[in-house]
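Ticket #4471: structure output looks truncated?

Reporter: J.K.
Steps to reproduce: submitted the chain below (206 residues) through the standard prediction queue, then opened the result file.
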Amino acid sequence: MTTLLQQQRPVKPLWREYGEALLVALVLALFIRTFVVQAFKIPSESMVETLLVGDHLLASKFAYGIKVPFTHSYLYRGNDPVKGDVIIFEYPNDPSVDYIKRIVGTPGDTIEVRNKQLFRNGEPVKESYIHFTEPDRIMPVRDNFGPVTVPPDKYFVMGDNRDNSMDSRFWGFVSRTAIRAKAWRIYWSWGGFGDIRWNRIGKAIH
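Returned output as attached by the reporter:
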């Protein structure tokens, strides 16, 4: 019987093992952030009551397709956004800034606001999620707008807090290629030290 001698692999220095593990973790984290899911923090009140200041949420990066990193070109174009989706997108007037709003109009829809009531294609829209801070005050543009027709590959978005939201009523449509992700779930929520909102953690975003 022939005895086989197993050649021992050279032992790596400890610093190299840790370095390789860190590199793999960084590459994996970059891949996940680029193509799968990304974390965002809510800084304003434009989506109250759906989202509160201090909510931290996860958003799906592949819900509407996969883009070439740092471009607007698609490797794979997934399902188109639909009415009611809460999306993160590049602010049209400054693409370096991320905004979060709700889609209320998709390509071909005619959007109008009359005395705070949203109309789509001439029909009033029932919205259980909206919030008004000034229900008895009517202002031009904010509370009376349109009608406008949403162009191809564009979307009309509004904040759920209708009296405190800069949205498509003021700066126009959102291009599909400017949409970065679909809001998915709240993973952390607080209003500061001592004010952790446990009941919001894990809440799905609808």
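Triage note (M.O.): checked the attachment and the full token line is present. The first strand starts at residue 37 and ends at 41.
Status: closed, working as intended.
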